[in-house]
Write a structure and sequence with these properties.
The protein is an alpha+beta fold and about 325 residues long. Helix content is about 40%, strand content about 20%. The protein is globular.
């Protein structure tokens, strides 16, 4: 697939990067956009350029306000940087499209690889799971407070996400499962003990693992889909992707029995969570599976290998059967 090129210099200059220093880290013209590392007068940073979403400016501003709120209060996230004009988001028209750019202090560390459990620092182990939970718990605890800020009203809601996914889904049978999921979610309370602004995509590709004076540290990136949701949505995302990283062909139950207690112990250091909420974890795993099937049915269209077809088939069969994603008792 041919990589699309963009004019980075205007954005680099706006955020005080040396244009010649930019190095492309990732490129997804239809997804997260283009991510570069480069140097500014104050050190190495990351420049992210993306097509402007159909959402209005107020949504983008609200998401950036949430990121700033978290950074100012010590959450383990990549700290945003302003442009030379003091703007947090720089927008520029390029032909028939509009691009937006943001900049962040470059987080140290790297992404996790395929799940291989071990006892060394940075391995997939209980220390990692607890820190993952602690970092998410801190974001959720701060999200409860941010929810009372006037600008938080402009963050999208779970309802918009469900409507979007239901409309996007091309499979009529699976679309009906989206309808059922919405009916279930409408029965849940939206009280601040379990609901508020969340990252909404905190899987291993959206945090970096490193060490701060010998201590394990996670730094969260990419708040592009943060919105008002249940805290269990975030926990379901973490568990779902932790299982996926180990390969669905293996029995996930022994891993889940190690992951969940460690993750929740770390989470509860920062944000209280009742057993009653944890008992809904199966439903939020199913929510994530519905979303994954919907997104990847489209993303893999026309370029599906054997493993992709198998993955979609496995997801669809489990969704339609109503079987739990993993047969473990929670709570």
């Amino acid at each position: 697939m041919k990589r699309e090129s963009i004019d980075t210099e205007p954005f680099a200059v706006a955020f005080e990067f040396d244009p010649a220093s930019l190095v492309l880290l990732s490129a997804q013209a239809q997804g997260d956009g283009w991510v570069y590392k480069g140097t500014r007068p104050d050190g190495e940073a990351v420049l992210k350029i993306a097509p402007a979403e159909e959402t209005d400016t107020k949504v983008r501003d609200a998401r950036m306000a949430f990121v700033q709120y978290l950074a100012e209060r010590g959450a383990s996230i990549a700290r945003p940087l302003p442009s030379r004009e003091g703007e947090w988001i720089v927008t520029r028209d390029e032909g028939e499209r509009t691009l937006t750019a943001t900049a962040y202090v470059r987080a140290f560390g790297g992404h996790l690889g395929r799940r291989m459990e071990g006892q060394s620092l940075g391995s997939w182990n209980e220390a990692l799971y607890a820190e993952w939970g602690r970092v998410m718990g801190r974001i959720h605890a701060l999200g409860r407070a941010f929810a009372h800020e006037p600008i938080a009203a402009h963050l999208p809601t779970w309802e918009g996400e469900v409507v979007h996914m239901t409309d996007w889904c091309r499979d009529a049978a699976v679309k009906e499962k989206w309808v059922e999921m919405r009916q279930f979610l409408e029965t849940l309370p939206q009280t601040d003990d379990g609901f508020g602004p969340i990252h909404n995509d905190l899987h291993p590709q959206n945090f970096l693992v490193g060490f701060d004076r010998g201590k394990l540290a996670l730094t969260v990136v990419d708040f592009d889909v943060c919105n008002h949701h249940w805290f269990m949505t975030g926990i379901g995302i973490a568990l779902y992707h932790a299982m996926w990283a180990g390969g669905w062909q293996v029995d996930q139950r022994p891993f889940v029995r190690r992951f969940v207690p460690a993750f929740l112990a770390g989470y509860r250091e920062e944000n209280p969570l009742s057993v009653a909420w944890v008992e809904h974890l199966h439903a939020f795993l199913q929510y994530r599976e519905l979303l994954m099937f919907t997104v990847f049915s489209d993303a893999w269209r026309g370029s599906r290998g054997g493993w992709q077809r198998q993955q979609l088939r496995m997801w669809r069969e489990r969704i339609l059967s109503g079987r739990p994603v993993v047969n473990v008792t929670f709570g």
